[in-house]
Amino acid sequence: MIRYEKYSNQYTDRIDCPGTEKHYRLTRADQWCIMIEKFLPLVGPIQQMAVYEDDVWVITYPKCGTTWTQEMVWLLNNGLDYARAGKLTLEERFPFLELSGALSLMDGDSVGRVQDLPRPRHIKCHLPVMLLPDAIRTVRPKIIYVSRNPKDAATSFYHHYRNIVGYDGPREHFFDAFLNDSLIYAPFSKHVRAYWEWSKQPAGTNCLFLTYEQMKRDLRAVIGRVSSFLGKRYTEREVAELEKHLSVESMRNNKSCNMDDLLEWARNTTHSEERKQLSKTNFQFIRSGTVGSYRHDMDDDYIQRFEEYERAATEGTDFDFFF
């Protein structure tokens, strides 16, 4: 049974903004996570949701390469059908399960939309293990989880908060909330470790664990691993074509993936009046697409604090954020 209580501290108070108001701490046995009030009505429907063996789930903590991975997975699982992919947005092909509960001002029924998808379904979510549908453990659909080093994940999430969620505060307050597990979907470290541990269990062969850093270092090798995981085979020429399609520049220019509609929604919904008066920013949903971009946003003190956070997150395991 999942219980919840209002959660507020100096960190949540400083990052509350139009897109993520009223934080709650959700507890299930010895597990816990932070979500917002808008998510609470989705807890039951997601727990009770039907799961099918031919489902394919892409799960990440926010801003860990989700969109990149979705595009790769959908194409690999659909015969590299670039024409169809270009006609449908990624949200249509690979919808975000808890979207209507992840942004305070977002309307709609994202869970119902996923439930009504034709099979095989492709499902995106950012949920920790404790909030997944109860049937997912027994039905065993294919799950692809992607992690990212905390410094880059936090930096990318900060820019997402500013440009999508409506946060106008200093980056230091946001980084403090991340380090003190006071953001939506927190705690980051337990989110990652739970999926890592799942993938290492004898019964965890349906969970493929990847890292953003692996994808940047050798995308072609990752395409091969994902293809095998999905039971697909492609020629070297086809893999090379997909690798080119998945480049950062290609993804930014891909209207079906670059989330321009979401950016326009944010400008009209979550941006403050002061922000609206500023000149139009050049922010793109697919931002730097690099490893180490945190160096442009963190000073030495925060880098050290995040490295301490990384050490604590991996202590006692053979997991490494950069493997």
From TrEMBL:
Domain named Sulfotransferase: residues: 54-315
GO molecular function: sulfotransferase activity
Domain of life of the source: Eukaryota
Keywords per UniProt: Transferase
Residues annotated as signal peptide: none
InterPro entries per record: P-loop_NTPase, Sulfotransferase_dom
Pfam families the record matches: Sulfotransfer_1
Sequence similarity: Belongs to the sulfotransferase 1 family.
Protein name: Sulfotransferase domain-containing protein
Phylogenetic lineage: Eukaryota, Metazoa, Ecdysozoa, Arthropoda, Hexapoda
